[in-house]
Amino acid sequence: MECETICSFSYDQLRELTDDFSQGNYIGTFQFGKIYRGKIKSAHEVKDVLVKIWGKPEIDFYYEGDNELRCMDELIIFRHEKLTCHPGMIKLLGYVQDEEHLGAVYDFKPLDTVYNLTPRDNFTWLQRIKVAFGFASLLKFLHKATPQQNPFVLRNISASHIVIDEEYNPKLFDVGLITGGVFPDRTQCGIYFIYGCMGYVDLSIGCTGEWNNKSDVFSFGVLLLNLITKRIFTKEDRKAATPLPHRWAWNQYAPRQSDSGIKLPVLVHQSLTADPDYCRSDGRKLTKLAMKCVGEDPEHRPDMKKIVNCLLKLRVIKQHADYLGKDILLHAQANLASKLM
């Protein structure tokens, strides 16, 4: 089922929307290309949009035509009326596909990606919690199986694949490795065998050969670690053989002796502990939750329903429910789930 008819753009139109892909409109990279801010100007209004351009990615197992197939997936997912009604899903306006170019235009005014914002000091504790809770709610929805379809598994969760608006609402804009749901099982074939995004890949897949919702849980755990530690795994880190985020966390999360006995450390960045909305009990709970998500044994990881319930117990969410959109997300979840039954 699909939403409104989408537009067919030319590449020259995308150049116009982005001021010739200017550096000022450049946001960053995603696994398969680049994203930009853009504006659609008409006689009556100016609409802010997000523009995505696919390119040749720096990954193994890439073949000509792969990105075209990924674009077709987006035409299905980001036009599906029951999926795009979720607050965490972005809305597709149109696309461009010719012999040399492939791109998409989304109805969204982007502030930035979570990847770019994570290390910044002005990305507050409350804003980070809003991103974590919003994206967890989306994953809970996508992972829900119904009599009509299997759960979706994203497989390439990354901070660089989540954009936020000026109110810090997170939106997923790339589903390049999605499987399940309205799609057949693709985990063992062709373009969909790519091992996710560096730093977010569940390494147990190398042993089991299976992608499932617990693989997404692992990636969410890394995202949560990003948000609370202000640490992002970069290309420079990869070249320097820096430990992956979850391995760094495993090394840090060891019992320590204190005056009151042996305690597990809180991995929240020191600068965030001074935030007026931060409390140590929340920091401890989030650290424990993240470590459960990135645990080595997938069977012992929580599912997204348990993760959302855990987040709902945080003091910061109880105190700032309206700002965080708690009721909106929970009601949307319930309404959409009933439609899919």
From TrEMBL:
Protein kinase domain ranges (all copies): 21-323
InterPro entries recorded: Kinase-like_dom_sf, Plant_Ser_Thr_Prot_Kinase, Prot_kinase_dom, Ser-Thr/Tyr_kinase_cat_dom
Main localization (coarse): membrane
UniProt cross-references to Pfam families, sorted A to Z: PK_Tyr_Ser-Thr
Subcellular location: Cell membrane
Gene Ontology CC entries for this record: plasma membrane
Keywords from the UniProt entry: Cell membrane, Membrane
Protein name per the record: Protein kinase domain-containing protein
